[in-house]
Amino acid sequence: MIRAQIKNKNGKTYICPELAGKENREYEMVPTDNLYGMIHEGVPLKISGICVQGFSMAEYRRKYRLAEDKIVDIAIDSVIDCLFCVRDGTAADFSYCNFIAVDEVAGIMLDGNVFYCGKVDFSYSHMGDCDFSMKGCRFIKCEIDFTYTIFGNGDIYFNETVFEDKCDITFTGVDFGEEGELTFSYMKGLDGAVEFYQCDFGENALDFAYMDCPKCQFVFWEIETPAMPVDFVDSVVGMILLYKVNVNGLLDFRISLAEHIVIQESVIRDCVLLGNQGYKNYTCYCLKKSTLLGRIKIQNRFSKKLFHKQLQYVYDPRQDEIVLCPTSSTDKANQLTILSENYQSEGETDNADAAYVLSKRYRSLGRIHDLWTDYPAVRRTEEYRKSRLKRLGAYLEISVRLFGSVIAWLFEKVFLDVLCGNYATKPSKFLFWIIAIVTGFAWVYYGCFGIDLGHFQMQNALYQSMKGWNVAWIYSLQIFLQIESGDLVPNVLGAYYFTIMEKITGLAMFSVFVVSYTRKVIK
Question: In sequence order, what are the beta bridge partners of 83?
Answer without folding.
Answer: 51, 114
